Amino acid sequence: MSDFFNEALWVLLLGSLLGLELIGKVPPTLHTPLMSGANAISGITMLAALTLIIKSGDNLPLLIIGSISLGFALFNVIGGFLVTDRMLAMFSRKKTRK
Amino acid sequence: MTFITPLKFAIDLLAVLLLALGIKGLSKVRSAREANRLAAIAMILAASGVLLHSQGTIGISRDSWIWIICGTLIGGLLGAVTAKRVPMTAMPEVVALFNGCGGMSSLLVALGVALFPPADVADVAVAQAIRNFSIVVSLFVGAITFSGSIVAMAKLQGWLSTPSWTQSKARHFFNILFAVLALIGGIYLSKDGQNGLFLIVIASSLLGIGVTLPIGGADMPVVISLLNSYSGVAAAAAGFVVESQLLIVAGAMVGAAGLILTQVMCDGMNRSLVSVLFGGALGATSVGSGGGGEYTNITSCSPEECALSLEAAERVVIVPGYGLAVAQAQHTLREVTRVLENAEIEVTYAIHPVAGRMPGHMNVLLAEADVPYEQLKEMDVINPEFPATDVVLVLGANDVVNPQAKTDQSSPLYGMPVLDVQEARTVFVVKRGMSAGYSGIKNDLFDLPNTSMVFGDAKKVLGDLLLELKELGVGSKG
Predict the structure, then answer these.
(1) Is some CB atom of chain A closer than 8 A to the CB atom of B206?
(2) Which of B120, B219, B390, B399 is catalytic?
(3) Which helix H or strand E contains B431, and what residues bound it?
(4) For the purposes of burial, counting CB atoms within 10 Å of the CB of A95, is it exposed (0-12), middle (13-18) or buried (19 or more)?
(5) Taking CB atoms and an 8 Å cutoff, what residues of chain B touch A96?
(6) pTM
(7) Tens-place pLDDT, residues B375-396
């Protein structure tokens, strides 16, 4: 068994437990923004796409697949964070006026 | 370059910490916006960590840079434009679209690694097997996330309806068939890493479509939330494929947090996850059973009469719903309530947990229209106040104000938390026609003597109402 996978399984387990604990009681107001924010974070798969491109050397098909994958991931990440910010901005604007 | 590996390690740790704080902060109103930025910074850190480390160790070729920049620019620009342009009412579709793309990204990574196995692949048999297994999971979950999200988006946009044949029991057979085919593909793929690749992609895509298509619009937010959780799982699987611990942690966190959020949403709608996924659309099975029947005592009235009642009222409660969101009438509503407030009529908004098109969506829409946050009352707070209310204005909401949920045990809605609007003195229901809500169930509220229907598109009715109120001189100084 390689070292990486040994460690990776621990990481997977602890990461999942952390995720379960992070969100306790969420006010209904935040369901939509939270979903959209978590969605943006799931675009972290862009790291995998980056790694794929970097390691592909001069393999053109692989470069193309990696690049498309990166595009999809960044669409997810950038769009997700911006749209979440837009939603949350509406809540905070109210607070400053108060 | 010995310092580069510890540096990468430190960056990764920091990124994970920020991501965790980000998710945590997003669940509190006060810290949500900063938390979102924190998470965004974490992502930038993580990406620069990968680039730095690769540049410092194996080096990044010019070709790679070109393709990285291409992908980043195109994906990022499209994402930014979409995020800026989309109207707030279309939020559920957009989240579904973004989510599907995340799933697609994980799928493509696994596909790339499977088609062109990297030269440095470990020749340890076990490592090879785990890698192949990760590829299978990544393909399977990624494909389901993508096809499911796209179907969810199309249904929310109204591009796809719920075909009646999808409600038959046969769909379970087909879905099981797709699952089995995907499993067979998976077994082949994990054996030698080549065969079965496309079988699994196609079968899992079909499975995603088959599971999502029969689900009714009201349950769609739960599905999107679940698919969001899946895209985290897909990312974690991709992390195993490219051996990135950061990716595994982040994916696992999003996957688990998404699952909790899905559960919270289900609780708010009084639905179990199992019945959402396998029960099909709520209405299709319940038509004709308890809760059916004809309306016998419908009173319809004009915006003019409605305006007169509003003028005489002291306490008004607005119940906004899906119809308001669809008609994009939140700004017109705000104008109406401003007029009422000027006339010193107390206005509050009763927000059902699932008002709008997904939980919390109505709060976002009303916030966009400048409604003060303090005027939004949650269901538990507002329910005891209805008996002391003069006029309730129900705007495009239906099932959430159906008294059957409390009175009729045979009703499919029975047990769902609802707003007790019938307790108020007068209720006006603004609605486009007599069609049923999501559930397809008759609403007893419409038959009550103190309920009047104002037929028409929410935006148009509110516009008329505004004119009438101005003619009556309500709220004008002098």
Answers:
(1) no
(2) B399
(3) strand B426-431
(4) exposed
(5) none
(6) 0.80
(7) 888 888 888 888 888 899 888 8
